[in-house]
Write a structure and sequence with these properties.
Elements (H helix, E strand, L loop, with lengths): L1 H11 L39 E3 L6 E3 L4 E8 L3 H10 L9 E8 L1 H6 L8 H5 L1 H4 L15
């Protein structure tokens, strides 16, 4: 049995592990495991290894290409302090710079914190599914309370 597996691996060029039963007189058929995503949830494409980064939320080690990266844009000072600075400023049109923080999340924290959503297989595959629509939780002109 080991010799047959080794021969099948040499012929096919891949691992012979998932072995499907074949007809005794026919050729050896290798079954591959189904893949959920075409890129296996990573964007390394041909690189054997990528650097490790830490999740901003839970400090889990995540491969850099697998981590979900988002910029969080904030004002450097809060609104009341900003008003005080504007009143005390000599310049009429002085704009305070913004604070850009690159947040890196592991998949678990990104889903839990609603940074990304779980999507249907059909939506994942379609071009419309790749366009990110940012949800606005209660910030719209809806009738919710």
């Amino acid at each position: 049995a080991q010799a047959i597996l080794a021969q099948a691996a040499a012929v096919s060029g891949r691992s012979a592990y998932p072995l499907a039963p074949a007809h005794p007189s026919g050729p050896l058929v290798l079954a591959t495991m189904p893949s959920k995503r075409r890129n296996n949830g990573r964007s390394k494409h041909g690189r054997g290894h990528t650097a490790i980064v830490r999740c901003s939320n839970c400090a889990r080690c995540v491969p850099k290409d697998k981590a979900i990266k988002r910029f969080q844009v904030r004002n450097i000072v809060d609104a009341s302090s900003q008003r005080d600075l504007r009143d005390a400023s000599v310049y009429a049109t002085f704009m305070l710079p913004k604070l850009y923080m690159k947040m890196i999340y592991c998949v678990s924290c990104a889903i839990h914190g609603r940074v990304v959503r779980v999507r249907n297989k059909k939506v994942r595959a379609s071009p419309e599914g790749r366009i990110y629509v940012r949800p606005n939780f209660g910030k719209g002109g809806g009738k919710g309370k």
